[in-house]
Specification:
Layout lengths: L12 E5 L6 E2 L2 E2 L3 H15 L3 E5 L16 H11 L3 E3 L6 H8 L6 E3 L14 H12 L4 E4 L10 H5 L6 E3 L1 H14 L6 E5 L8 H7 L5 E4 L4 H7 L14 H14 L2 E3 L3 E5 L14 E4 L8 E5 L1 H11 L4 E5 L12 H12 L3 E4 L2 H9 L9 E2 L3 H8 L5 H7 L1
Parallel strand pairs: 1-4, 1-7, 4-6, 5-6, 7-8, 9-10, 9-15, 10-11, 15-16, 16-17
Antiparallel strand pairs: 2-3, 12-13, 12-14
Length: 400
């Protein structure tokens, strides 16, 4: 896979496919981590005299403009981070985009409007997707893929466009791929995987593959209750995927057969009421053993004994991969499990990877120093699919 060092970019229009899919509260960006992650690649290209055309998706519009998914707030924030003006095109391949790109001089940057405002970006029809990619290609001389959070999507700007222009991977993608290789091919042991989040079904492929590679797997979040139910425990009104119970039983049996420690919560915080995440009023909860959850209550975070247990299991790790919070971390009363895992990663002597998505957001929201971790991924879904052993279309395109 070529990198941007392999491209002669001076005076050229360089199309950078970024992942600027940041969370918004109205027009306010609540977490700018993905913008900051790609900024060094853009800055490096600008310093080398490129005319940079940045493009990204945001949210899930249905192939037509929706104001709430506009990248206009991102253009302003990107300009602040880069320390220079960012021209903003109010369309993707129309008059505004053509004018914004034509107006660039060496060392200047423009951002196109949300790529998913055009139905061709996400189309399942190869011809429709390629036609949109050809329109994008007309805006540039070179292509740089640096939107790691989108490389698992077979979309026009990710998969079809690189085939139409000389292309290379940006620094962010090169870093992400290098990190993932350390989690699959060059693993320092013990290798500990921490998985949380709401659903077992979201993690089936990664559990299946990592059972062959990991030494320990620690489970938290909503997905833990399906495993506890599989063991025959009452889980009350906790998140539960009944249809996944047989799968969980198979994983538990496979872990035992392979000698992989499969660790579930031993105590949990439970409540009859889901917490108020807006006002964050104090929550009412009980601490119970994980095999004694009342029938009318749901688990919302791991308890203190589990926090201590998980910290012990992480203390000697050579490699750690963490994806998914341990509870409803957005509320302070249910954030301690996720905090404990984050702190245990910081205390671990090994190479620690926070696998994107809610875990990366939690690290920032809970006030941890991002630079203290080995790596914080910008792509939760892409990271998981790579660890499942899948071919990622965006990486395949950059390798071509």
């Amino acid at each position: 896979m070529k990198t941007i060092e392999d491209l002669d970019v001076a005076g050229k229009r360089v199309f950078v496919r970024a992942d600027l899919n940041v969370p918004l509260d109205g027009a306010a960006i609540t977490d700018d981590g993905r913008i900051r992650a790609v900024a060094p690649t853009i800055a490096k290209l600008l310093e080398r005299g490129a005319k940079v055309v940045v493009a990204s998706h945001l949210g899930r519009p249905k192939g037509a403009p929706e104001e709430k998914f506009s990248l206009a707030p991102v253009a302003a924030r990107l300009g602040e981070i880069l320390g220079k003006d960012v021209s903003f095109a109010t369309d993707t391949v129309g008059e505004s985009a053509a004018a914004a790109v034509a107006g660039l001089t060496d060392g200047q940057v423009a951002l196109l409007e949300n790529l998913r405002f055009n139905a061709g970006e996400t189309s399942k029809d190869d011809a429709e997707r390629k036609a949109f990619a050809e329109q994008l290609a007309a805006l540039a001389d070179l292509y740089v893929g640096d939107g790691f959070g989108a490389v698992h999507r077979k979309h026009a700007s990710v998969f079809d466009l690189p085939a139409l222009l000389p292309h290379a991977a940006g620094d962010l993608i090169a870093t992400e791929v290098g990190v993932l290789r350390k989690l699959t091919d060059e693993v320092a042991r013990p290798y500990v995987v921490v998985l949380g989040g709401a659903k077992v079904s979201d993690k089936l492929g990664v559990i299946d593959n990592l059972l062959k590679k990991a030494d320990r797997i620690l489970i938290g979040g909503g997905m833990a209750y399906t495993f506890l139910k599989a063991q025959g425990h009452e889980v009350g009104i906790s998140l539960l995927q009944e249809d996944q119970i047989p799968v969980c039983l198979n994983y538990l049996a496979e872990a035992e057969k392979r000698g992989v420690e499969f660790v579930l919560p031993v105590d949990v915080l439970v409540s009859a009421d889901f917490p108020d995440l807006k006002g964050k009023t104090p929550a009412t909860f009980d601490l119970v053993s994980s095999d004694a959850i009342p029938a009318d209550k749901e688990g919302l975070d791991i308890g203190p004994k589990t926090r201590e247990l998980y910290a012990e299991k992480l203390a000697d790790a050579g490699t750690v991969f963490w994806n998914g919070p341990m509870g409803v971390f957005e509320h302070p009363d249910y954030a301690n499990g996720t905090k404990a895992v984050a702190k245990a990663l910081l205390d671990s002597p090994g190479f620690t990877v926070v696998g994107g998505g809610d875990s990366a957001a939690a690290v920032r929201i809970l006030g941890f120093d991002e630079n203290a971790f080995g790596h914080i991924s910008t792509g939760g879904g892409a990271s998981l699919e790579y660890l499942e052993g899948k071919q990622l279309p965006g990486l395949t395109a950059l390798e071509g």
